[in-house]
Amino acid sequence: MNYRFRATEVFWERFYDLPAAQKESVRRAWAIFKANPFDPRLRTHKIHKLSALYQRTIHAVVIEGDLRAAFYIDGDTVWTVDLGTHDIYKG
Fold it and tell me: What CATH number has the domain bearing residue 48?
């Protein structure tokens, strides 16, 4: 499926706070993510607690180590909503 990609202000705020090396890791993952958010290299997984909280399926991808990006799909749009450590899973 061809998706449109959007990111929330929270995502961008957290991105700009990252060190340069982690920003580069996010950019590399983003290239894969835009081709396919469910590419096995990203280890995409459902975040059950956030999905229940927001009453929609929330997924996360592994950027590197403990760095994750959370997103959901609404129709043909992928919304990237948060970026950070496992703490983003707490909601």
Answer: 3.30.2310.20
Asked if residues 72 and 81 have their Cβ atoms less than 8 Å apart, the reply is yes
36-58: string of b/e by CB count within 10 Å (b at 16+)? Answer: ebeeeebebeebeebeeeeeeeb
Number of compact structural domains in the chain? 1
pLDDT tens digits, 56-82: 999 999 999 999 999 999 999 999 999
pLDDT category at 91 given cuts 50, 70, 90 is: low
Tell me the residue range of the domain where 66 lies.
4-90
